[in-house]
Amino acid sequence: MKELTLILDEQLKPVFLRIAYALRHAIQTGQLTANEPLPSARKLATQLKTNRHTVMAAYQELIAQGWVESIERKGYHVATSLPIESSSLPNTNRIEQPSPFQWHLAEDLSENRLNKPAHKYQYNFAGGSPDVSLFPFKDFKSYMNDSLSRPNLDDLNYGNNAGNENFLHQIKLYLRRVRSITNKDIIAVNGSQEALYLIARLLLQEGEKVAVETLGYQPAWNAFNATGASLVPIKQHANGIDIEHLESLFSTGDIKLLYLTPLHQYPTTITLPIHERMAVYRLAAQHNVAILEDDYDHEFHYDSQPLTPLAADDPLGLVIYLSTFSKIMFPGGRIGFIAVDKALSPAIMRYRSVMNHKPNVLMQDAIGRWMQDGGFERHLRRMTKLYHQRRDHLIHTLEEYQAQGVSLNYHLPAGGMSLWLDIKSHALELEKACLENDVYIAAEHNFHLDPAKNENRYVRLGYAGLSTEKLTQGLGIVFSLLKSIQS
């Protein structure tokens, strides 16, 4: 940054000392940090409406005091080693403390957090992590360049907050051809979490009930809880949710919304069979319950074509369908979409305008061009094949551990990016030991709506983001730790 705002004491004379004291104050308060470049004498003089020699005199004064250094061909910089003159001088090695102001929150969203995010661990078995290193950045850059070189100027203004027109068109085309979803309006969002929050705020009032899988996705539950809604767990079995239990919940007349991950159930990866999907839809229609279908990794299905979403056969328009590009591209892209009945989309867009006017249209435009040109599907084919290989490698490695006498069990996932592994016991202890050894895994306690249901026997292993070599190395650490815990 070339500009620098200084607090000048107009009572102080001469002027060069006024400038010198202002610069020193900026350093003492942390506005300027050690070794940071300073504006040239000419530029600062222009800014302060004085002459260059006055500023140079101020710099010379600070050089003499040890606050500033003059570096040949680089100009003036804040000194690398600063004089200790005041207790207000920031200590760059000190952990910043919270301000003394007491904040009173409307609701408590505090939680235990990891010391570092999952992707910072050497072996990251987080379930939804794609291999970001393999994204075709050079190829995608050309579409970003096109978006900047030939932007749709209307998109760069307010209005049309459904999203970029070509992006929405490409999504509609893709959903029709690949997921059999038609007759829905598409709304771009900043990732699936924004979509969950929007839908929750729009449809739910305090005290209303949402039926959710008893093992499920905590961020979605947080969005529902933020509205004051109550979460009602649906029992699960080997094939997914218990339809009879769902019917008994619906029969009370209290359920307003049903949240499901039917293709690759989160976290167990179970695919809900077609006849049970039909039963779910009939029950929702009978009891006037909306369905929120979260299809977070549809593309990555390996053993057959994935079942079409509930939204593909929705004559009543009661299914709200959401998906994301976070797994296909990278989470930092923050692009997702909602497919909804035409009667609901205006209300969603009106409510979304309270939060923000629209998601990143340049990113949408680039993705739309990428999809239109075929690059999107080429990338998908490549990554689907690769993740399939990594899933098979994970299974082969687990089979080797079973042959060595390790007690474990699992359901072979037909698709997705993770595996729900039954290690029989000590899941929480294994999670803790792994985190201490630079391996990220998540034990089942992270996914229970009712903590009392925790059996302390399952862990979720994501395999998509790790090479086969790192999968082997990481699993070696996991099972070595498990052996020491269980012995």
Summarize the structure.
This protein is α/β, with parallel strands linked by helices and 487 residues long. It is 39% helix and 14% strand. The strands form five sheets. A seven-stranded mixed sheet has the order 4-12-11-10-9-5-6, sandwiched between helices.
Characterization of the model:
The strands form 5 sheets. Strands 4-12-11-10-9-5-6 form a 7-stranded mixed beta sheet, with helices on both faces. It has a 4-stranded antiparallel beta sheet with strand order 13-14-17-16, with helices on one face. Strands 1-2 form a two-stranded antiparallel sheet. The protein has helices at 15-28, 41-48, 52-65, 137-149, 165-178, 192-203, 218-225, 243-251, 274-287, 345-355, 361-373, 375-403, 427-436, 468-486; strands spanning 68-71, 75-78, 123-124, 185-189, 209-213, 230-234, 236-237, 240-241, 255-260, 290-294, 319-324, 336-340, 409-410, 418-422, 439-440, 442-443, 458-462. It has 487 residues and is α/β, with parallel strands linked by helices. Helix 7 (218-225) links the parallel strand 5 (209-213) and strand 6. The protein has 3 domains: 1-94, Orthogonal Bundle (Arc Repressor Mutant, subunit A); 118-129 and 379-486, Alpha-Beta Complex (Aspartate Aminotransferase, domain 1), CATH 3.90.1150; 136-374, Aspartate Aminotransferase, domain 2 (3-Layer(aba) Sandwich). Residues 86-95 have low confidence and may be disordered.
